[in-house]
Design brief:
single chain, about 290 residues, alpha/beta, Cobalt-precorrin-4 Transmethylase, domain 1, Methyltransferase, Cobalt-precorrin-4 Transmethylase, Domain 2, five-stranded parallel sheet, five-stranded mixed sheet, about 45% helix
């Protein structure tokens, strides 16, 4: 314990502190001690963070650091760190920087050669994944989705064939529209998990097909309330599409001698029906092995 206190009193350190995502009990002892001992707490919303600080009897000085002022105010905080002050960075809930403000400050401090110390804790992304029942060895985190329907559909079209699990955050105002966009681009039988109000009184974690998830959210008003983490199962890779015959390989080889990789692959896709990703990877390998210049 004495060693930890000594570490906190060293000069010029920025502590990135994870705070609860709902249940106030989900904060580490180390996080509480850090928030008590730093010289300053930079918070996304000082009014919101005050409730947490009051709960744990913390009376430290607060300053506001949010998406609208962080570019301008981060250099000011860097100067304070250089002068010897210690600062804790917190968001409204969870781990800072994961779809929350803080990146400009952390980057500035790291580039200046000062220490950035992570104080781990709650994170909605990891909390949802741990209870999802979908593969998590590999996953892609996409943050918050675009606000317009056309942009969301483009986003889903780009990921419909992704074979690993992917995850995004969504608000109560757009969850229904987002699911409606999903069913226009992703198969209805694709497994998804909708996790809402994690660690709170009305926590709900539902694993079902995309089609059934849309019906559930349409029919149940409560499923359109709160904060959401949506987890989407990866597509099943079509093994048949991954197999390239000797004739197809020869065709690609001939095309590569005459045109660029991009054109050769496009023509091979048209002629063979093999997936573009598979042909492009093979073309790159051929180009490397044969020293073909394009």
């Amino acid at each position: 314990m004495g060693e930890n206190i000594k570490m906190l009193t060293e000069l010029g350190k920025l502590y990135v502190v994870a705070t609860p995502i709902g249940n106030l009990g989900d904060i580490s002892y180390r996080a509480v001690e850090t928030l008590k001992q730093v010289d300053l707490i930079a918070a996304e919303d000082t009014r919101h963070v005050k409730m947490l600080l009051q709960h744990y009897g913390i009376t430290n000085k607060l300053v506001s650091l949010h998406q609208h002022n962080e570019e301008k105010y981060s250099p000011v905080l860097l100067d304070k760190l250089r002068s010897g002050l210690s600062i804790a960075l917190v968001s409204d809930a969870g781990t800072p920087l994961l779809s929350d403000p803080g990146m400009p400050l952390v980057k500035l401090v790291k580039d200046a050669g000062l220490d950035v110390v992570p104080i781990p804790g709650a994170c909605a992304l990891i909390t949802a994944l741990s209870a999802a029942g979908l593969p998590v060895t590999q996953f892609s985190f996409e943050g918050f989705l675009p606000r317009t329907s056309s942009a969301r559909k483009s986003f889903f079209n780009e990921r419909v064939l992704l074979t690993k699990t992917w995850v995004f955050y969504e608000s109560c105002h757009r969850i229904l529209a987002t699911l409606q966009d999903m069913v226009e681009t992703i198969p209805l039988d694709r497994q998804i998990v909708i996790a809402r109000e994690l660690t709170k009184l009305h926590e709900t974690i539902v694993k079902t097909s995309l089609g059934e998830a849309l019906e559930l959210v349409m029919q149940n008003d409560n499923m359109r309330k709160g904060e959401f983490v949506v987890i989407v199962d990866g597509a099943v890779e079509n093994k048949k599409d991954s197999v390239i015959t000797a004739e197809q390989e020869k065709l690609l080889q001939v095309l590569l001698k005459e045109v660029s990789i991009k054109t050769a692959v496009a023509m091979a896709v048209e002629l063979t029906g093999v997936r573009k990703k598979i042909l492009y990877q093979l073309a790159l390998e051929m180009n490397k092995d044969n020293g073909i210049q394009n």
